[in-house]
Amino acid sequence: MEGSGGGRHFILVHGLCHGAWCWYKLVPMLRAAGHRVTALDMAASGAHPARMDEVESFEDYSRPLLDAVAAAPAGERLVLVGHSLGGLNLALAMERFPRKVAAAVFLAACMACAGRHMGVTIEEFSRRTPADFFMDSKIMVLNTDQGPRPAVALGPKLLAAKLYDRSSVEDLTLATLLVRPGCQFVDDPLMRNEALLTDANYGSVKKVYVVLKDDASTSEEMQRWMVDLSPGTEAEELAGADHMAMCSKPRELSDVLLRTANKYD
């Protein structure tokens, strides 16, 4: 889902089991403000044609973003926006193409830090989260060419109680129709590589973390823990939004993104 226009170029990356469709309210707001916006499907997500068991690695899962950033014209510096698990896709793109990114916005997202492996954020989330967090979600094992891989299909009760609890019934219904099984790639070698994210590349990109104060799936304390891992990260706050702030508080989120684009122009 892409549009042209002047101003900044925002690239939007969804979280676990979601797709480009979840940004449908935000995209026209940013375009109306004069910016170009690209909402991406990661591999085997949204309308992407692959199945998750066909995606060989986290890098392959991130390939749509890596290709989009690589293809950005010289002189066009991007504003990357990652939601939830999408923060790790951003980290990989920032490390590979730091001079192409004006700023990266982490929306209640996994935000890794230089010098530690990317999976540390998922490990910490699991440590802080009750065993029954996923409620009626279906935990499964995918048979891949790389061996068995854990995956999850988010259940409607989980979506209603912890992700879309402040969103409209229409947004919740849309999600129940469109979410697909997803993987966190916790055992992927790239995810375990402590030398992957460097101060010179990943650490050099301006970072903004949007703390969702009323997120029922990721506590404010967990979000601020990630901010503290990366000194120099700017923190913004949104109150009254659920985990899917692009659905429950799109105007307020748009305002944050427009301020960020102006600040790091």
Automatic annotation (TrEMBL):
GO terms for molecular function: methyl indole-3-acetate esterase activity; methyl jasmonate esterase activity; methyl salicylate esterase activity. One of its GO terms (biological process) is jasmonic acid metabolic process. Residues 11-254 form the AB hydrolase-1 domain. InterPro entries: AB_hydrolase_1, AB_hydrolase_fold, MES/HNL. PANTHER family: AB HYDROLASE-1 DOMAIN-CONTAINING PROTEIN, METHYLESTERASE FAMILY MEMBER. This is AB hydrolase-1 domain-containing protein. It comes from Triticum urartu. The gene is LOC125549112.
